[in-house]
Write a structure and sequence with these properties.
Helix content: 40-55%
Oligomer: single chain
Keywords: Membrane, Transmembrane, Transmembrane helix
CATH architecture of the domain at 48-129 and 136-146 and 184-299: 3-Layer(aba) Sandwich
Distance between the termini: 82 Å
Strand order of the largest sheet: 2-1-3-5-7
Order of helices and strands: HHEHHEHEHHHHEHEEEH
Strand content: 5-15%
CATH topology of the domain at 48-129 and 136-146 and 184-299: Rossmann fold
Structural class: alpha/beta
Length: about 300
């Protein structure tokens, strides 16, 4: 009986060590890859001094195209938006950007309209994309300070037991890590400047009678982002992207706001209610570029 228990314990220890080695190796590989935005910023982006960066969720990822904006303004930007994320993750990305020695003059915040007034933040669906940096204080503090919408906080405890995160997000982490061994420069649905666009599928026109959405800037992470920008001499721009069903009413005169929720009317630029197709991406980027030029002219 004692030998049997000894065998079981030995097998358990070996199995645990094997899982730990596989997990550490996977995160080590991802940390040196370009698959997700956080390691892409570190490994593939050689520029350190930007004129502007774009933070946000899926609307930030698909609405503003830095290639187009740069070609019009003569400036240099990068799109760091990650789909299915909230303001807390945008704050984490800004910390990551600064922690890696990058600087920018402007930070463009383009997230969902609902996020601006959300007062309770949770860990998001794509927050695992920072797990390869779980040992960094700013990443662990993020995982430690927020709770998941439901269930166990896998991200927090992955600092000490990395196989928790790898096994829970196996499709999103293990297989990309395996792919990155052979294709370290492969990116997950974004181009060399972080942009992604929907194809020009047949869309539908924006509604003529749109509802009004009030924005009061109540999310506590807005203050965190504003403070971090101020500490690093970054001008923060709030960008409200084209919206098929809503117009924004903004309750702030002190913030730098660009409101494009109502710029597209009859022409079918929309993929769905809040995302634009490639044609909309191109036109929205041109409009934003003109606004950015105005800001530079005012400050200069």
């Amino acid at each position: 009986m004692k030998k049997f228990i000894g065998y079981i314990l030995s097998f358990g220890v070996v199995f645990y060590l094997l899982l730990h080695i596989i997990s550490v190796a996977s995160f080590w590989t991802l940390r040196r890859s370009a698959f997700y935005k956080p390691p892409f910023l570190v490994n593939e982006v050689k520029v350190s001094d930007f004129d502007y960066i774009i933070l946000g969720a899926s609307t930030g990822l698909t609405t503003l195209n830095t290639h187009i904006i740069d070609s019009i303004t003569g400036k240099q930007g990068i799109n760091l938006a990650i789909d299915d994320t909230g303001l807390s993750n945008h704050y984490l990305m800004l910390q990551h950007f600064l922690a890696n020695g990058k600087i920018t003059r402007y930070c463009v915040l383009n997230t969902s309209l609902e996020a601006f007034d959300r007062q309770h933040n949770f860990l998001g669906d794509n927050d695992y994309r920072f797990l390869m940096y779980r040992d960094k204080d700013y990443v662990f503090n993020y995982y430690n300070s927020l709770a998941p919408k439901e269930g166990f906080n896998v991200l927090r405890y992955s600092k000490w037991t990395p196989f928790l995160g790898l096994s829970y997000y196996n499709t999103e982490l293990f297989f990309p890590a395996l792919s990155s061994v052979f294709y370290p420069h492969k990116r997950n649905r974004f181009d060399s400047l972080g942009n992604y666009t929907y194809s020009n599928v047949t869309g539908t026109p924006a509604l003529k009678n749109k509802t009004e959405k009030e924005i009061r800037f109540k999310n506590p992470y807005l203050k965190k982002i504003e403070t971090l920008c101020k500490q690093n001499n970054i001008e923060l721009i709030y960008y409200f992207s084209p919206d098929k069903t809503r117009n924004v009413k903004c309750f702030s005169s002190s913030r730098n706001v660009i409101n494009h929720t109502d710029v597209f009317k009859e022409v079918p630029y929309f993929y769905d209610a809040i995302h634009v197709v490639r044609k909309g991406n191109r036109e929205a980027s041109k409009l934003f570029a003109n606004e950015l030029i105005k800001l530079y002219l005012i400050e200069e």
